[in-house]
Specification:
Rossmann fold; alpha/beta; single chain; 267 residues
Length: 267
């Protein structure tokens, strides 16, 4: 089934062009573009992790969303900018330029169809900046088009409460949170017997510079991890993943409702 995790009645490609043309209140309908990546996630996880998270969380949120809030999911953009994982077999990466072009051209089609609210729902930590650049450019070209460059994990959720302090701070890739969530979404694709704990090697101590913070440096995964994991995947559990999924979905329900009711301050 094409819709996968997404409720079929919320899956945009299942509509006919005439049904789309006749939709009411198009300026407030929320169109959501799930965005992921195809990239290595250690020995134990499939390369589809980020895409699965976008689709799984969005599907759960749309299942919970009251029918009075019109919102539709576009097909996932599976490929992303994943060049930090270059050298790990299976990683497929687009350039920033290509990704910007794809997002802008997709958005132009959504705008041409009459919609005025577009969410870029990104689950890959290597590309929030691209979402933000694309959203600003799209809005500058069409000021009545409201575009929201959102990261899946930034809605209110309980994930950090379930993690150790070290994992909360440094478990940024294929660690406890992502592994637990995939155990809830795609349990048959997780090989927990291959899960490892690996944190970055030789990072500067007592420094203002960090991998992902206010003052970051450029890095490649192969420079800081031999397994591809940056975190502790051995701590993961399906039970933890189900709690994370539930809280992320609830957060996204509230965000979608806020976006439906949103009016640009400049309008």
């Amino acid at each position: 089934m094409m819709h996968g995790f997404i409720p079929p009645q919320r899956y945009f490609p299942y509509l006919s062009w005439q049904e789309i043309a006749n939709l009411e209140n198009k300026e407030n309908i929320v169109i959501i573009q799930p965005i992921g990546a195809i990239e290595q996630h250690g020995y134990h996880l499939p390369i589809a992790v980020d895409s699965a998270i976008s689709l799984g969380v969005l599907g759960e949120a749309l299942s919970k969303l009251d029918n009075k809030y019109p919102a539709y999911a576009l097909p996932c953009l599976y490929y992303g900018k994943s060049n930090e994982h270059w050298g790990f077999p299976g990683t497929i990466t687009l350039s920033a330029t290509t990704m910007l072009s794809v997002i802008k051209e997709m958005a132009a089609s959504i705008y041409q169809a009459g919609f005025r609210k577009l969410v870029l729902m990104n689950s890959h930590g290597g590309q929030p900046q691209i979402m933000e650049i694309a959203a600003r450019d799209i809005h500058q070209e069409n000021p009545d088009f409201n575009v929201f460059p959102l990261f899946t994990w930034r809605v209110p959720n309980i994930a950090k409460k379930l993690l150790t302090s070290q994992e909360s701070e440094s478990g940024i890739h294929a660690g406890d949170a992502e592994t637990s969530l995939i155990l809830a979404l795609l349990p048959e694709q997780v090989k927990m017997d291959l899960a490892v704990k690996e944190y970055p090697r030789n990072l500067p101590k007592n420094s203002l510079i960090s991998m992902e913070g206010k003052l970051p440096f450029a890095w490649l995964t192969s420079e800081v991890s031999s397994s591809g994991v940056i975190g502790d995947a051995t701590l993961a559990s399906k039970e933890k993943g189900e709690l994370i999924l539930e809280s992320l979905a609830n957060g996204w329900v509230e965000v979608i409702k806020d976006i439906y009711n949103f009016s640009n301050p400049g309008e």
